Recover the amino acids of this structure.
């Protein structure tokens, strides 16, 4: 997808700076820490080039990306330091070792894997190693580790994670009878069409417009209480939040979207969210939509994305969990559900959400994209699909690897900017933005965060009850008799949420620093609520460096291999 003429496609240099108020880990390593394999290779090759200039006393400008000339970074020491044979030989040997390391990495690189996949595999391997010892520390630690592995890592067969044995009798009992897959399931007829003579200010009828307006006044702020918005909008949070955002951004006018059509579609969409789901309901969709809207407003992203990309991001968030049954992908796969069969066990729910949402566009007076050109519709559809599929939590490590590789590679290149001039880079940032929003509950004010935790656990326990009734193995964190909520939230933040948000904060620094601060406050609060003898990983006094970190360590002696240690740094 080509950028629109006149639109800037550059993230400012602030995107690559390490903020001052960070964990002691970042302060120790400052800007020298590089953990993703591709960026490590780039850094080593730059070092080799500098050393070559020093050894040969030869220098010339290097042609950079797009044929632009980049000045050569100054070597750390001058030629006068190389007068002796010893110093000359030492630098030559260091250069050879750097070059050998790069060759080792490149020779073992699989050509069919992307550079971010290298980082993803590395992160998964280290996380699995850390969780292996964590799971052995206590019964609750084992359950939390199992939950993290089963939810946030894909291709589990590669990770040496033990699986409970399922008997053939259990398999037979767990397989549901399925009906012929002749159409998209879950799509219902339009209940009503809006016949407003005047479109309501917030897109919904309400008996408490002042209270609703008071909460929607925070539409551009992080931490808006969507649950309160639902209370004052007749349970139409998704409709009024999405409508308000699109109006705020003037996108109805830009893409000639009739307000009546938009409200008909949004109401129909909201009707397809299950209100009896404690968590995966329209209020969650509204929360993710509003969160992404705020992230798009980051100063570092100003004028980066086109109006069509912004429309696609808002639309993707609004639809991303439509017709969610309140059960996990793994449950649907384990029970042989019709959806799992239809989508071959791959991102089952995410594929279904997309199918339902696009099918609803075909209903009467629901095509909100009727005035887009064919090319615009195709582009929007592709972007929406890419973003919603990325909300599959098993893709978490891949998304984190994409983001961290992108940031580090550009930092090593020395340009100080991120050039989002191709579709792959641009969609990666948008996917991670939506993923951050989807994992945004722990970054909200504590009172709001607690509400979401209670809702999620209620939904998990409902699935656990169903599994118990069907004599299936109860999924991790779904057993109401053994789940440890406080520990699970601390582990969730340390291993999953904090690494993601810390990387995002680096990308848009300093715009997300207050979000990271709230996350760390909430983590410490949940840690303080752990009252029963916790596992060793949770017993130390909470400090600013008690989060999941990427730490360089040497494997073996003298082999020059740089790895990361993924775990809780207790200082």
């Amino acid at each position: 997808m080509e950028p629109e003429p006149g639109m800037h496609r550059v993230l400012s240099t602030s995107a690559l700076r390490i903020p001052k108020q960070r964990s002691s880990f970042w302060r120790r390593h400052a800007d020298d820490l590089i953990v993703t394999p591709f960026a490590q290779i780039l850094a080593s090759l730059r070092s080799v080039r500098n050393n070559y200039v020093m050894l040969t006393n030869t220098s010339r400008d290097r042609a950079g990306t797009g044929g632009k000339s980049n000045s050569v970074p100054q070597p750390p020491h001058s030629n006068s330091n190389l007068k002796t044979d010893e110093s000359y030989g030492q630098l030559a040997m260091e250069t050879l070792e750097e070059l050998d390391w790069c060759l080792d990495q490149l020779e073992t690189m699989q050509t069919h894997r992307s550079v971010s996949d290298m980082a993803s595999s590395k992160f998964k391997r280290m996380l699995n190693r850390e969780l292996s010892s964590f799971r052995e520390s206590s019964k609750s630690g084992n359950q939390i580790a199992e939950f993290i592995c089963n939810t946030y890592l894909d291709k589990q067969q590669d990770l040496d994670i033990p699986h409970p044995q399922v008997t053939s009798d259990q398999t037979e009992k767990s397989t549901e009878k399925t009906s012929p897959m002749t159409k998209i399931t879950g799509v219902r007829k339009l209940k009503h069409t809006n016949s407003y003579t005047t479109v309501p200010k917030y897109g919904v009828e309400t008996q408490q417009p002042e209270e609703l307006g008071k909460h929607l006044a925070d539409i551009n702020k992080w931490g808006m209480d969507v649950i309160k918005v639902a209370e004052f909008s007749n349970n139409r949070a998704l409709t009024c939040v999405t409508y308000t955002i699109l109006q705020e951004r003037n996108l109805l006018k830009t893409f000639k979207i009739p307000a009546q059509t938009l409200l008909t579609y949004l109401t129909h969409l909201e009707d397809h969210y299950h209100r009896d789901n404690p968590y995966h309901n329209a209020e969650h969709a509204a929360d993710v939509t509003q969160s992404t809207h705020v992230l798009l407003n980051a100063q570092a992203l100003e004028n980066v994305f086109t109006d069509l990309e912004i429309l696609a991001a808002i639309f993707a968030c609004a639809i991303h969990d439509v017709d969610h049954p309140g059960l996990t992908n793994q449950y649907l796969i384990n029970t042989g559900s019709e959806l799992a069969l239809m989508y071959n066990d791959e991102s089952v729910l995410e594929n279904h959400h997309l199918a339902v949402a696009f099918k609803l566009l075909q209903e009467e007076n629901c095509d909100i994209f009727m005035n887009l050109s064919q090319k615009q519709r195709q582009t929007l559809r592709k972007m929406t699909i890419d973003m919603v599929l990325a909300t599959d939590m098993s893709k978490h490590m891949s998304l984190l690897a994409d983001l961290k590789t992108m940031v580090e590679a550009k930092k090593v290149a020395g340009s100080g900017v991120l050039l989002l001039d191709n579709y792959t880079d641009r969609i990666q940032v948008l996917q991670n933005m939506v993923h951050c929003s989807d994992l945004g509950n722990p970054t909200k004010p504590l009172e709001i965060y607690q509400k979401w935790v209670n809702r999620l656990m209620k939904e998990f326990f409902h699935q656990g009850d169903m599994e118990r009734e069907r004599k299936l193995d109860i999924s991790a964190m779904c057993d109401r008799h053994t789940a440890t909520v406080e520990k699970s939230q601390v582990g969730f933040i340390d291993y999953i949420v904090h690494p993601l948000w810390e990387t995002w904060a680096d990308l848009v620094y300093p715009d997300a620093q207050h979000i990271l601060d709230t996350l760390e406050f909430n983590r410490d609060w949940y840690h303080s609520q752990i009252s029963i003898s916790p596992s060793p990983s949770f017993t130390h006094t909470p400090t600013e460096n008690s989060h999941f970190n990427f730490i360089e360590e040497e494997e073996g002696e003298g082999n020059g291999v740089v790895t990361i240690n993924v775990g809780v740094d207790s200082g």
